[in-house]
Amino acid sequence: MTSAQSLQEETQRLKRAVEELSILNDLARAIGSTLNLEEIMQTIIRRSLRAVQAEQGVITLVDKKSSEPTKTLVRAMVSSSDHVEFHLHQALLGWMHLNMKPLLVDNPKQDERFRGVRWDESVNSLLCVPLLVKSELRGVLTVYNKKETNKFNTDDQRLLAIIAAQSGQVIENARLYEEEKGYLKMQEEVRLAAKIQLDLLPSEMPKLDSYEIIGQTIPAQTVGGDLFDFIKVDHDRLAICLGDVTGKGLPASLLMANLQATLRGQTLVAREPRECLTRSNQLLFESTSPEKFATLFYGILDNKRHVLSFSNAGHDHPFLISADGSVKRLGTGGMMLGAFDTFSFEDESVPLQLNDILVVYSDGIPEAMNTSGEQFSEERLTEFLIKNRGLPPKELLNNLVQKVREHAGVQPQSDDMTIVVIKRSQ
Questions:
Q1: Same domain, yes or no, for 172 and 215?
Q2: Number of domains making up the chain
Q3: Do residues 394 and 370 share a domain?
Q4: With bands split at pLDDT 50, 70 and 90, how would you rate the model's confidence at 127?
């Protein structure tokens, strides 16, 4: 080789090196100016197509949280041709998971590594490089069809690998930023849902002649699936509801709001508890999926006659405790709401004597566990209520919540806890 030829080759090599540095510098500035994931991926693909003179490019991000290692999360695509858009073939993604190194394929249809894979007729060649973050595959950058020679070379492979190495962490940072934005948005939506749910619950306790009434719900999460409500029927009668819908969190709170609206509507047209629950059950069944249901205690307190009429839809049986310590459990009713299309509920009426106390609660009270897996239990609840039956309702409720929390200790609350206490004081 003559010195002139050597000089010419060295000049070409230096020229290419300068071009590559310019490409990488421009790319660094472009992708460093935004945290928008889609914009970053589109920029990387466009600069890659220009750098290696390819017709089309695709970035495929891998879902690292999935149990399926080849499940894709996001795809971004740019094409400089009129060909149909190509997607990264599953076989290529599998190969990249196994090898995590650049892959150059001049003739995909004849490549022994991908025997049996059906390629699009327009794919003549491809170059595939991994997007690695701390040696873990986060995505794949693939370009298709060299414009002039139809074959990518080792210089193209080296340059695309450098682009991928420069881009991997930037893409990961943008992806994490978008995840964080989504998480913050979800937090705000949950906060608003909690406020809406709080607004749906009674803002103040009802004032009824001869009775002291208090209620409280303590959700296990920001929003919960328990409800309690007081609905004025007329001057002398007050409807009392306490329910527990399936699940926890936001889905349960939506079903709770649905049930509460249903009960408020039906209380105005149904004269008896059994009639209210029969209608509410059908409406809830029609408006929810089969696996969604709710337990509910529904009673109507007549403060003129001092009688409680009630129907229990599969809920924990409330305690009616007399001044002498005798206990009656209120279980008459039927199945949980929403489980079956039609169901005929029963109801019962019980007199309320002076100093009788009614305690309605959700299963988060007796089922509260300590670190040993031991529940607070119905037995402890019964013993506590009999022993403390002489306390004012508000004090009784607060002391019960404190007792349950003392039992649980450092164990996190696993279920919503709701209590309503009513005492005939005159």
A1: no
A2: 2
A3: yes
A4: very high
